[in-house]
Structures are given as structure tokens and as C-alpha cells.
Write a structure and sequence with these properties.
mainly alpha, 9 helices, 199 residues
């Protein structure tokens, strides 16, 4: 009788491991039974050693921030509509569509759980924030190249991005249609919104 050989361990690239870890985070966050989100639980679900997660990310908060930024970048491809208004609406509509999926809900939970609790943590999260804002900056740069006058980044953050997350965090719900256009028109001053601030 021949002895059964153990299955060969599949080697994965660092990016494959990172993707598996990110997916494990989202799976645990969206689980209906509300499983505990810990580094060991994430590692077990991703099929990696938990010590490798500590070496790469250092903490659960840093891992959550990386997961959020990476997935939002992937889920929000830039769309050139030919106008600043069209670009901002397209960007916002992509975010709304994402929030209406289980993964989108998990991302909102990850955003809340990874909120920095002090100046040091805010500095650690800064690179993730800059990566996320890069797509908005690209929209602004395209608008300026067309001769348009886009609002400053801080105004877009306060009046376009923040409302979506506030609604999602407090369970108010984000309307599937119309809401992005309403916010964008208010920012651009065509729907009786607050006056534009100077850059």
C-alpha cells in the first residue's frame, strides 16, 4: 500500500498574499455573524502566518487603512467625461454604487475601525489619505487643463466625500440616484449651494 504524499504548498507572490489578506479583512467585516476582526483571524482566513502580517503592517489599524485605500482605488476608476461636473459626478456615482454592495459596506466599517486616535496615528495614515485623494487631484488637474476653475481639494473633501461616509456610518443610506448630482451642483454653485472659497 503506497503512502499518500502531502499536497505541495502553493507559493504565492507578495502581491497575491496582500490581495488574499485584504479579501480576508473584507470577508470578516461583511460576515453576518459578526466575527471578531483580529490579526490571527485574518491570517487564518488568508492562509498565512499571523507574524507576517505584523511584520508587513505593524498593526490591525494600518492593515485596515491599507485595505480601504487599495480597494477604493480599484473600485473608483477615473472617467474623463470632458467636464469637471461630469468627472465629479462619475467619481461620486462609482462610490455610491460601491456602498450598495456587501464589500462597500465592509469598507465603510473598515474606515470607521481604522480611524486614527492621535497625532501619531494621523501621521501614519497620511500616505493612505494622499493615495485616495490622488484621483480627485487628477480630476482637478484635468479641469484646469481645460480652462475650468475647480474647487480646492479641502472643499471637495468636506462637501462631496464626507457626506457619503457620514450617511453610511450612521445608517442613513445613500440614495442610488440623484444625490451625487445634488452635491456636485451645490459645490459648483449651480444649485444655490455655499459660495466657493478661494484657493
Amino acid at each position: 500500500m503506497t503512502q499518500k504524499q502531502p499536497a505541495a504548498r502553493i507559493r504565492r507572490t507578495p502581491e497575491q498574499v496582500r490581495a488574499a489578506v485584504h479579501q480576508a479583512v473584507l470577508d470578516l467585516l461583511s460576515a453576518p455573524e459578526g466575527e471578531d476582526l483580529t490579526i490571527p483571524a485574518i491570517a487564518q482566513r488568508a492562509g498565512v502566518n499571523h507574524t507576517s502580517l505584523y511584520r508587513r503592517w505593524g498593526s490591525l489599524d494600518a492593515l485596515l487603512a491599507d485595505t480601504v485605500t487599495t480597494r477604493l482605488e480599484r473600485n473608483s476608476p477615473l472617467k474623463d467625461t470632458g467636464t469637471l461636473r461630469g468627472d465629479l459626478i462619475a467619481w461620486a456615482e462609482a462610490g455610491v454604487a460601491s456602498m450598495h454592495t456587501p464589500e462597500g459596506y465592509a469598507l465603510v466599517r473598515a474606515v470607521v475601525l481604522s480611524m486614527p486616535r492621535g497625532a501619531e496615528e494621523r501621521n501614519e495614515r497620511a500616505p493612505h489619505f494622499r493615495r485616495r485623494m490622488h484621483s480627485i487631484e487628477q480630476i482637478r488637474e484635468r479641469a484646469m487643463a481645460r480652462g475650468e476653475d475647480p474647487p480646492p481639494l479641502e472643499q471637495l473633501l468636506d462637501q462631496l466625500i464626507a457626506p457619503f461616509y457620514i450617511r453610511a456610518i450612521f445608517g442613513i443610506g445613500v440614495p442610488a440616484t440623484g444625490y451625487p448630482q445634488l452635491l456636485v451642483d451645490r459645490i459648483l454653485g449651480s444649485a444655490g449651494g455655499p459660495p466657493r472659497t478661494s484657493r
